[in-house]
Amino acid sequence: MLKTHGRYAHRSIEDRPRFRWPxxxxxxxxxALNVEHYAFGEGLVEDLVPGGTQxxxxxxxxxEYGTRVGAWRLLRQFEAHGIPLTVLLxxxxxxxAPDFPAACRAxxxxxxxxxxxxxxxxxxxxxxxxxxxxxxxxxxxxxxxGVPPEGWLGPWLAETPRTPxxxxxxxxxxIMDWGADDQPIWLLTDAGPLLAMPYSQEINDSVAIIxxxxxxxxxxxxVIDQVDQMIEDAAEVPLVFGLALHANIMGQPFRRxxxxxxxxxxxxxxxxIWITRGADIAAFxxxxxxxxx
Length: 293
Prior knowledge:
Blueprint: E1 27-35, H1 57-81, E2 85-89, H2 93-96, H3 99-107, E3 110-113, H4 127-145, E4 151-152, H5 163-169, E5 174-175, E6 185-187, E7 194-196, H6 205-211, H7 216-233, E8 239-246, H8 253-268, E9 273-276, H9 278-287
Parallel strand pairs: 1-2, 1-8, 1-9, 2-3, 4-5, 5-7
Antiparallel strand pairs: 6-7
């Protein structure tokens, strides 16, 4: 037998509970807006133009465009379409751009934890160091927002073998690192079950646009096709679509213009979709744990 992670057993999508999301909907949709902060000149990076010398002003400025402009434009765009957000926030954003999470708070968007900074990952950390990182990021969000975050997405989706246990013990209700399904699934941990929320790596602007060089129009078409197909797929088995966006990528003006087509399409199909936040999906599953595989 090959080595396995042991976090969940195989269970095909056709062998699932038959229930409906609130309002009798088959598809639940949440938008995960990544709002990130990077150190200047050190640590991990996502580059628009790779191979630059230090200090890499070009790429650093591109990343900071996200909190200065892109996130704000997207916030207003989603507000115009009446679509709530799950904001995946590096806790360091409170130091760099505290006005943005304050605006999200006022509008009732969910603040989920995306670690401390995207300049670091948990990979290779000792248990003590990882626990401290999780505790620091969680405490900062709880202190600023008045409530602890319910959802976790690790920077770079990097984990150690202990991460699910540490996230569960830190009080989180769901994690987005394990995108193995179109339904929420239960991860086995020695601290109790932890809900894994679908978070798309395919319909993700970083992967599609930066990684695969898709155009803004192509990415928008992907979103629309994903929504329409998943509505059909959810006729009998309830599904979740987690649309993954990044403020410095999709927040560029020409991409926002294309994204508006997708948002209008989602809003127009609200009769078929529970358009909500990650925390609300998690709460609905936690009410009846048999709703997740």
